[in-house]
Write a structure and sequence with these properties.
The model has no long low-confidence stretch (mean pLDDT 90). The protein is 31% helix and 22% strand. It is built from twelve helices and 16 strands. The chain folds into two domains: 206 residues, Rossmann fold (3-Layer(aba) Sandwich), CATH 3.40.50.2020; 158 residues, 3-Layer(aba) Sandwich (Rossmann fold). Strand 7, helix 4 and strand 8 form a beta-alpha-beta unit. Helix 5 packs parallel to helix 12. It is globular and about 60 Å long. A seven-stranded mixed beta sheet has the order 12-11-10-13-14-15-16, with helices on both faces.
Length: 389
């Protein structure tokens, strides 16, 4: 469902306010530009209503900061009134480019620092907002979502903490394991998939990709990503394959059992383009290993699709994979920090999700259902049909 297709009939229950923490400033500005444009062009019945005071504004971004003392301690500060507002707070916990001074030393902000700033801003609102909604594209501590020994359950604790602070809704993208929402069963939790944005970015950059089951296959790099791969394959009408990781459970290296080999389950790959889809690219070693095995099985081209591109070990390993012909393109979203070096690579494609997030915020502020927005099946089918013609 597009913004132009929606006809809102309900007056927004609260004024819209968007707080984009410093980690998410660029995405926040893009979202704000879309909403300002849409509201000036449509829903004129709301524009002059006294019940909708503040419906039209030049910007919905609010002035909020988290200044720090020389000791590294900080506080949250909102310089505008939030009374009777629907607040949407955006935070990118993976933005390591931001720094602060600690007793004369320069520290890069960690996920813990970003999460603390989020809590500070929620605390600064002091319960005066009508509702508080957190948009956290990468769910904080989502990789620590289950207990296999005597260890912490950080993601569940985080969700319960936000609930206790008065957060009404949490919107995240492609959670590592969406079942973690069971930690807050009666609170709002939406896990959004950017599948449409992946398909659109791929078609726009590589229009010779044919969405035909004899020419394309979707691959899950491990058992954890199988649900994503099955959904993508079903929507675009192709087959799915899977790798599973054979690990050495007698050894622990850097907190995890090392991977011995990737084993493949699926149909023949001869001459087919392949889409490897996962929630994140961390170091990229596993994805490149999978890509090599796909090429050994005579795959034609390999495209890597991932919601979050962390590239924790740098870009050299991908540069070499491109040079060796192992990978064709890498697609990740702009939901988290992208380095200038990454954006300059010819092999990299950025899938823009800003318009989608703006649509979710605008719809929720009108107290309308987002069910159709969360299911992109129809939009993908229409887009591919148009592309085929």
């Amino acid at each position: 469902m597009r913004r132009s297709d929606r006809n809102f009939t309900k007056i927004p229950g609260g004024k819209l306010g968007i707080i984009a923490l410093k980690s998410c400033e660029a995405l926040g500005e893009e979202i704000d530009n879309y909403i300002v444009k849409w509201r000036k062009e449509t829903n004129r019945q709301f524009q002059d209503s006294i019940a909708c005071d503040g419906y039209l504004r030049d910007t919905y971004l609010m002035d909020a900061v988290c200044p720090r003392f020389g000791s590294g301690e900080a506080k949250g500060l909102i310089r505008e009134s939030v009374r009777d507002m629907d607040l949407y707070i955006l935070v990118d916990v993976l933005n390591y480019s931001l720094t602060y001074s600690l007793c004369g030393y320069t520290n890069h902000m960690s996920p813990d620092d970003h999460y603390s700033d989020l809590k500070r801003i929620i605390s600064a609102a002091a319960g005066k907002a009508k509702s508080i909604n957190v948009i956290m594209p990468f769910l904080y501590e989502s990789r620590q979502h289950k207990r296999s020994t005597r260890e912490s359950l950080d993601c569940a604790v985080m969700l319960q903490e936000l609930q206790s602070l008065g957060v009404d809704n949490i919107i995240t993208f492609d959670a590592h394991d969406p079942r973690v929402q069971n930690a807050i069963p009666i609170s709002g939790f939406d896990n959004v998939q950017p599948t449409y944005q992946f398909v659109k970015a791929l078609v726009e950059e590589c229009d010779d990709v044919e969405f035909d089951k004899d020419k394309l296959m979707v691959i899950s790099p491990d058992e954890g990503a199988m649900q994503r791969a099955v959904y993508m394959a079903n929507v675009v009408g192709v087959d799915v394959g899977m790798f599973y990781k054979r690990r050495d459970y007698s050894t622990v290296i850097d907190g995890r059992n090392p991977i011995v080999a990737h084993e493949f389950l699926g149909d023949s790959l001869d001459g087919k383009d392949v889409l490897i889809i996962d929630d994140m690219i961390s170091s990229g070693e596993s994805m490149i290993d999978v890509a090599k095995q796909l090429k050994n099985r005579h795959a034609k081209r390999v495209f890597c699709l991932s919601t979050f591109g962390l590239f924790t070990n740098g870009l050299d390993v991908f540069d070499k994979a491109i040079e060796d012909g192992v990978i064709e393109k890498v697609i990740t979203t702009n939901l988290t920090y992208q380095t200038p070096e990454l954006l300059s690579r010819d092999w990299y494609i950025s899938a823009d999700v800003g318009k989608y997030v703006a649509l979710l915020i605008d719809t929720l502020n009108h107290d309308a259902s987002i069910s159709e927005l969360l299911d992109p099946t129809e939009r993908i089918s229409e887009y591919l049909e148009k592309h085929t013609k």
